[in-house]
User: What shape does this take?
Amino acid sequence: MVFFFPSFFFHNHDRELSCGKVSKAFIYIKKIHKMRRVSSLKEYNSLKEEAGNGLGLVVHFSASWCEPCKNVGSMLEGYLSQYNQKVLFAEVDADLVTNVCEAENVECVPFIVFFRTSSRERAQERVADVVGGKLDHLEMNLVSLYGNGHDTRESFPDLNEYLKYLTSRKGVVAFITGTPSRPRCGFTGRLVEIFYELGIKFIYYDVWASDEVCEGLKKYSEWPTYPQVYVDGELIGGYDICSQLKESGELKAILKH
Amino acid sequence: MVAVAEIEARIRSNLEPTSCEVTAISEEDRKYSVAIVSHIFEGMPLLKRHRMVNDLFKEELLSGDIHALTIVANPS
Assistant: This one.
């Protein structure tokens, strides 16, 4: 037998109470992972603070009349259990909560904003955007920014093991400054343009997220600058090499694409 | 910041180039471009050529005196 209470009863948190068939009622409370529907700027700011307990926050700006928003919403829902509250997911109805749109300078839907918890102040740093319903870009940013939910630095015994893991992940892995949608260096922007132009799928690591990784990878790879591009844990090179390989027609083959 | 002449001199004294051209892409941003032709690069993979050049400026690249080297390195 299951009891449900109206959601307002629990101050906007949904809880489920369940009774097992025992002589004395055994009650436990389980928090259901779900998309947070934001209804005010105050609530939005509270959510950003709450996200500081984890890796970050993904905000989907949508509208009821927007067909691509449904696909985006479905895809993001699919990630809720994987990230298990380490990453919070929120949806903002752009027609109803206009002050949040203004606060984040969002003027179209679907629009997905990615925040990362900064290591110093635990504040939410806006690091990437996806404009429109590009599901492949959504996935790229999720995997790149938050990993698989379990593979943070603390899971590895030392830095070298972590770097070996990061560089050996499946497919093309680019260590860049900033993100594809918010690059912090011209070389990063130009590298990403090459990948997009050739249709090369990749994931990235923003070395600004970690001084330890930023400095450690230079020693690990004996390569002093960023970007650095890896396939199967092997350094391919930086922007120059990728650009020259593109000109010679070899880049796709070398990236095993 | 590093002088263009210093970069060129170090390349010439280490890589025996038949041709060596160094340009400051942006001195303010400490970005330089080097184009080198040297027999030393014969049969050498692209990554190794670039690593050889980077190694000459390892200290400057680590300290930030050089932010980025754009490298073209060919054997002929």
Observations:
- The mean pLDDT of chain B is 90.
- The interface with chain A takes residues 46-47, 50-51, 54, 57-58, 61-62, 67-72 of chain B (CB under 8 Å).
